From TrEMBL:
It comes from the Bacteria. Residues 86-173 form the AB hydrolase-1 domain. The keyword Cell division does not apply. Residues 202-284 form the Peptidase S33 tripeptidyl aminopeptidase-like C-terminal domain. It comes from Flavobacterium psychrotolerans. GO terms for molecular function: hydrolase activity. This is Alpha/beta hydrolase. Gene3D superfamilies: alpha/beta hydrolase. The keyword Hydrolase applies. Pfam families: Abhydrolase_4, Abhydrolase_6. The chain crosses the membrane at residues 20-42. The lineage of its organism: Bacteria, Pseudomonadati, Bacteroidota, Flavobacteriia, Flavobacteriales. Keywords: Hydrolase, Membrane, Transmembrane, Transmembrane helix.
Amino acid sequence: MTKKSNKIASSLKIPKTILIIVKFLSVISSKILIQFVAKLFTTPLKHRIPKRELEMDRKSKQILVLIPNLNKNVMVYFLGQSPKKILLVHGWSGRGTQLFKFADELIKLGYSTISFDAPAHGKSSGKSTLMPEFVESILELDRQFGPFEAAIGHSLGGMSLLNSAKKGLKIKRLAIIGSGDIVKDIMDDFIKKLGLHQKMSDLLCYYFEKKSNQTMDSFSAYKAAKKIDIPVLVIHDKNDDEVPVKCAIHIHKYLKNGKLMLTQNLGHRKILGNNEVIEKVIDFIQN
């Protein structure tokens, strides 16, 4: 393994302090353990905005928008004045400025962009969230600022857009990049990283389903893909260490009007800055 891939892999590791707490709780109480793990699973990391995104942060008009069904405010970013609007949706622990390179190119071509910090992300309110809150935020932005010509989503943002399209998001085309697929697989992977037995994944799933009165599998991307008729471009890197490429292949299989683009050695985040990927997405939106 190269130094570069070692660096990527290490970034996915759970901090030792968390692993110690998890091991301690696993001996003390399974109930407290599930509550703690659920908190971890729903709490995104907030990162300082990187220098490369500062220009979009400075140039965009920013408004806090209330999402009534959540009673949470999300920060919304507006760039450009064109009525041809594109919705950009970041992934877990991301920001509304994360897809800035797409925004830059779209503005040059006469589009305007709208993006947002999902609940508990960036400048938005809250400390914890789940995909249904991403979806509710997207649908509310569609009601207030849509319709959108198209939408672009990264990682969880891609999953959320697929589910939003299933629920009536009014877009003509959708591009998803590095999207996850089966929710239970995501939970299984999270539990594995914590060093817990896989039965804890079932308990975690039950915990969320009991609280939300919704099945976690109903939010799986491939299930949403079955219900969508619009053209969807699925892009994924073969060397994505966070979301396996099999997710893209599986989602594409169930799309009625899908295209698949697989890249090499771009990983999960570097792919967002790749010129070939950006050109492919913009060409897909325009044609």
